[in-house]
Amino acid sequence: MYYIFVLGPAGSGKSYLTSALVEWLRDHGMDAIAVNLDPAAEWLPYAPDVDIRDYVTVTEVMRKYNLGPNGGLIMAVDLTVNYIPKIRDEIEEYRPNYVIVDTPGQMEIFAFRASGPTIIAGLTSGSKSVAIFLIDSYLATRPGPLLSMFFLALSAALYHRIPQLTVLSKADILPSETIDRIRNWIENPELFVQELKHDIRALHSYIDVEYLIESFIRPLLSELIPVSAITNTGLDELYAAIQRVLAGGEDYLTEEPSEKL
Ligand SMILES: Nc1nc2c(ncn2[C@@H]2O[C@H](COP(=O)(O)OP(=O)(O)O)[C@@H](O)[C@H]2O)c(=O)[nH]1
Ligand SMILES: [Mg+2]
C-alpha cells in the first residue's frame, strides 16, 4: 500500500487532482482510494472512500468550542490526530494499492503545525509514501510569485520529511510556450535568477538569490511536472515520477498485484 499526499496552498487544485489521480489509477487497473482529510470541505469533486468529516467537521468544532472559522480549522486539524487509528482501519479494509490523501485547504494549518506531520507519520507508518506539492499555474508565470511558491514547497518538505514531487497544477490554462519557459527556468536556474532580478529589484540587493536557489531550491525541485485535472494532461508523467520515488522505477502494475487476492 502506497500513500500519496496532495499538498499545496488553498485553491491550488488539491481536491481536483485527488479526484483526477484516483480516476486515472483506476482506469489503469489499480486499486486506488481517495481519503479526504479536510474537515472544512463543503463539497468535493470526488466521492471520498474515507472521510475525516465522519469524525470531525469544522462547523461542529466551531459550535462546540465557540471558535471562528480559523480557530475552528486549527482545532479540527488538531483533533484529527485522535482519529488516525480509525482512519487507518478504514483504509486497510479497502486493501488498496494507492491511497490518495487530499489535505486541508489551508495548507499552513496542516503542513506547518505539529498535527500535519503527525497525521502523515501516523497514517503511513510502515508504508512508502510521497507528497505531491501543487504550484498553481496562475502563480508560476512570473519569477517573483514562483520563487515564493518554491519556498513554500521547500518549507512543506522540511516539515513532513517524506519524498516530495512538485507539480504545476492547472497547466491547461497556460500555452505550451509558457510551460516550456517555466520548465527552462527549473533546468537553468541562472536564467530564472536573471529574470527574477527584473521582477523583484529590491530583493537581490540584500539576498544572494543564486545561492538560495542552488543550495536549497534546486535539490528539491529537480523537476516541475505540468498537470491538468481538467484535461488529465500530465497524469502519465506524474505517475512515472511517483513510480520513480515509490518503486524505484519498477512497473508496479506488473511487478506487484493488488493485495486483494
Ligand atoms: N483550469 C483548471 N482549473 C482547476 C484545475 N484544478 C482545479 N481547478 C479549479 O481551481 C479551483 C480550486 O480547486 P480545488 O481542487 O478545490 O483546490 P484546493 O483548495 O487545493 O483543494 C476549483 O474551483 C477548480 O475549478 C485544473 O486542472 N485546471
Ligand atoms: Mg480542497
UniProtKB/TrEMBL annotation:
Gene3D superfamilies: P-loop containing nucleotide triphosphate hydrolases. SUPFAM superfamilies: P-loop containing nucleoside triphosphate hydrolases (SSF52540). InterPro entries: Gpn (IPR004130), P-loop_NTPase (IPR027417). GO terms for molecular function: GTP binding; GTPase activity. Keywords: GTP-binding, Hydrolase, Nucleotide-binding. The keyword Transferase does not apply. Belongs to the GPN-loop GTPase family. PANTHER family: GPN-LOOP GTPASE 1, XPA-BINDING PROTEIN 1-RELATED. This is GTPase. It comes from Ignisphaera aggregans.
